[in-house]
Amino acid sequence: MPVIELLLSEPTAFAESFEDEPSSGLFPAEDELVAGSVPRRRREFTTVRACARRALGQLGVASVPILPGLRGAPGWPAGVVGSMTHCVGYRAAAVARTEDVVAIGIDAEPNLPIRTDGARDLVTVAEERARLPALRARRPEVHWDRLVFSAKESVYKAWFPLTGRSLDFDQAVVTVDPDEGTFQARLLVPGPVLDGGRLSGFEGRWLLRHDVLLTTIAFARRASAAGALV
Fold first, then answer.
1. Dihedral pair phi/psi, residue 66, rounded to 5°
2. What is the pLDDT of residue 213?
3. How far apart are the first and last CA of the chain?
């Protein structure tokens, strides 16, 4: 059953895969990047790029190599913004034209708890951790610490192309709505100025399907300075 189409819609284009693609689908420049990689890494690298090229095709954009740039961010064709993600059993990509969408961030994670308290403390802030017991009581099937982590990954992927700056885990606070399948991320550092207003946060969507947690952000041109859903 499709997953990402439950979270994103036009003008964003997207594609996903629950199985790996043949490794022969890479451009030479991409193939060089994973020439010495273990088979698992090569498969996920290949499949997520196949998803990206299918999504680009929906926009009428020709297939091109998608090479990592600054801090590993994907290098999209001119006039395109996008995001890719992969985890065990799932790969996806989402793209849009920059005239329609300012930023996209997507992230997929296995629905498993973060392994240690130390790791949880590293990727969450006290305000987020304080809400975890109530979220677990509301919907115990969701590993909420992992979902908060995924939301922050989506925030970073949307943030970095706008700013060219890092965003640490303690520089945004995520609030999740367990019933509506949405989340809000409040920035604790100054955001970029867009259309005359300073961005103060992002809004996104999330779901759990097939033991995968998926979070998405698509920030539209028509959005206010507080962030918006597409």
1. -115, 100
2. 98
3. 21
